[in-house]
Design goal:
This protein is α+β, with helices and mostly antiparallel strands and 630 residues long. 16% of the residues lie in helices and 33% in strands. The radius of gyration is 29 Å and the shape is globular.
């Protein structure tokens, strides 16, 4: 039998299958056994997806102290074998050994994933566990779960089957015979746009007589912050949809991987609720990245375009980490319904086809994109902006637009004080228009008029409701590009006001400092010192010591901090207290504004009370509900 050489899958496959030696040619052997067929185990056996789990069962459960499985393995010819396990992604740290050999520990993201199939339980992955030399005859394999681990995703485990092979076995799902080396990750352009249906509906609805608004937020770290990918996307969409009223905002923070970005998101991302979020970030494989994904789905109704990591130039060790991280990105995007561009796969293929060095696309020869790299990234992202006939309409459960040209059960008003027409509803007095809703955001689309109206949320002025308040991003740390404070936490009695932190006694490396806090309304809010969590006197704000980002200035930029400086931020309302009519609107203009934005998803009552200073009118209202009760 011809022996297949060692292969590291380039492009679509992500890892090493195994190194084979010439002496094995005469003793080719592949041994396969099911995880649930242990001679002795205290791990639970559970049913899996019968179409994708070998034998329809696997060992599956929560990691606990003392869980093990023993197997009898008979080797006919003996030799040097590649040892592989099929399991639930990288979940569950464990160790293994044959007979009385040395233990081999398996944990973390640097494992070689050779094949992956997405099941309803999660990704079932073949993992290359390394090599073992076995003599002919019976052997005992022991698997033991490890509870002391730094990875949060290790609280679960599942094992499907195992293989020993010295003949170039190429895992192919649940096929016991293996198969040819093949791409596991398939990119199907027919799937593009499946998770951008509302974005595309807004763009497609624009025209000379209707300049549909579309708000796009770009968030993440330096790959977005330091590139012109936002301008490339804007240029493309403007070229294809010239009448769309597209507004973009970029608030990415260079160097802020998911463990830190999950905190700044409370100030930069969640208060925004854009129509489309373009997002890319590194790190957070221990759960912090999923925390951001979960925060997006819990607080926002936005659609999300994200992508797997491009090819940088840090070396093979980082390449392996990027490959493993990209697998997590694929899994999370599928779980949370994000549009995913598989940039890593496409980038590798492009380099292979063109024979260009990876540094051709990197401005610093390491990771950041030069214009050529930005163009390449854009070429992989832009095809996802397409109308997909198979896209889900699930977004309509979360976003409801109500025309006001006819009666609606959510809207009540005095017919004598409000007049309906084909254009909408217009006030002719001071009686309120009342809207009952489930949601955390309301947009009003105004018609031409000159009047104004008071806004009430649940009977109160919105800016006085803590549910509508958020902290802004703080000033930058001196000499840096990142906020000095990563997260300001708000208390129950928080009010709208500006805060000033006066730092003094600051050591050049930021290891020690003191500060006083002054509120524009609250006045003296107390003092704080390095290493100690701060709570204001009024209880309106608090800042954890770990969220004051000063020491990284010296570590990252090699700059000394000044001995004293001032940092400002504010607590603001995400809602509006007053509606002002847009006046005379140019043809095609859509005067849409967010008047209510709060944290809780209802129920809420919105009241619009004209000030009797001119007509106030609305053509429609849109209610946004992350929980899908709109």
């Amino acid at each position: 039998m011809k022996i297949s050489p060692a292969i590291r899958f380039s492009g679509l496959l992500l890892s090493l299958v195994g190194l084979l030696f010439a002496e094995n040619a005469l003793h080719a052997e592949t041994i396969w056994w099911e995880a649930e067929a242990a001679k002795d185990t205290n791990m639970p056996v559970k049913a899996g997806d019968p179409t994708l789990i070998s034998g329809g069962q696997w060992l599956d459960g929560e990691v606990k102290e003392g869980l093990y499985a023993d197997y009898n393995v008979n080797v006919a010819q003996g030799g040097h074998f590649t040892f592989l396990a099929r399991r639930l992604w990288l979940h569950g740290a464990f160790r293994w050994r044959f007979d009385d050999g040395a233990w081999v520990n398996v944990e973390g993201l640097n494992q070689d994933i050779v094949d992956q199939v997405t099941t309803k339980e999660g990704p079932a992955c073949w993992i290359d566990l390394g090599y073992v030399t076995l003599k002919p005859g019976p052997h005992t394999l022991r698997i033991e779960l490890v509870t002391q681990t730094t990875y949060q995703f290790n609280h679960l485990f599942a094992f499907d089957c195992f293989v020993l092979s010295n003949e170039g076995f190429a895992p192919l799902g649940i096929n016991p015979a293996g198969g040819p080396h093949r791409p596991e990750i398939k990119i199907n352009e027919a799937d593009f746009g499946k998770f951008l249906p509302r974005t595309m509906a807004l763009l497609e609805s624009s025209g000379p007589d209707h300049h549909t608004p579309l708000h796009i937020l770009f968030y993440g770290q330096s790959i977005i912050a330091n590139s012109a990918i936002d301008q490339e996307i804007l240029k493309y969409l403007h070229g294809k949809y010239p009448y769309a009223d597209i507004k973009i905002k970029k608030v990415a923070i260079g160097g802020y991987e998911a463990p830190r970005l999950r905190k700044t998101a409370w100030q930069d991302l969640y208060p925004e609720n854009p129509d489309l979020l373009v997002f890319h970030d590194y790190g957070g494989e221990n759960g912090e990245l999923e925390e951001i994904y979960r925060g997006i789905r819990s607080n926002l109704t936005t659609e999300v375009l994200t992508w797997t990591h491009h090819v940088d130039n840090f070396g093979s060790g980082i390449d392996k980490q990027r490959d493993a991280s990209s697998i997590i990105l694929r899994s999370l995007a599928a779980k949370y319904g994000f549009e995913l561009a598989d940039v890593r796969v496409l980038w590798k293929d492009y380099l292979k086809e063109t024979h260009l060095p990876r540094t051709d696309f990197l401005i610093d020869k390491m990771i950041h994109l030069n214009p050529k790299g930005t163009d390449l990234l854009a070429s992989f992202l832009l095809p996802h902006f397409r109308v997909n006939p198979d896209a889900s309409t699930d977004w309509k459960k979360h976003i409801t637009t109500i025309p006001l040209s006819a009666s609606a059960k959510e809207v009540t008003f005095d017919p004598g004080a409000w007049t309906t027409s084909s254009q909408g509803v217009v006030s002719s007095g001071t009686a309120p228009l009342k809207i009952e809703l489930f949601g955390n955001r309301v947009d009003l689309t105004g018609v031409s008029g000159t009047g104004s109206a008071k806004i009430l949320l649940d009977g109160q002025t919105p800016s006085t409701e803590p549910d509508t308040l958020a902290a802004s991003r703080s000033d930058k740390a001196p000499g840096s590009w990142w906020p000095a404070i990563s997260l300001v936490q708000l208390g129950k009695n928080t009010i709208v006001e500006k805060y000033t932190l006066n730092f003094h006694g600051v050591k050049p490396d930021g290891s020690s400092y003191a500060f006083t806090v002054q509120g524009s309304v609250s006045g003296d809010e107390g003092a704080g010192t390095s290493g100690v969590d701060f709570v204001s006197k009024s209880g309106r704000i608090s800042i954890k010591a770990e969220d004051i980002a000063l020491s990284t200035v010296k570590k990252t930029l090699k700059k000394d901090l000044p001995a004293q400086f001032t940092i400002n931020f504010e607590v603001h309302s995400m809602s509006e207290d007053l509606w002002k009519s847009p006046g005379a609107l140019p043809p095609g203009t859509v005067s849409q504004r967010t008047v209510i934005r709060c944290w809780t998803d209802g129920p809420h009552t919105l009241e619009i009370i004209p000030n009797n200073d001119g007509p106030v009118g609305f053509s429609e209202l849109t209610i946004f509900s992350p929980l899908g009760r709109g």
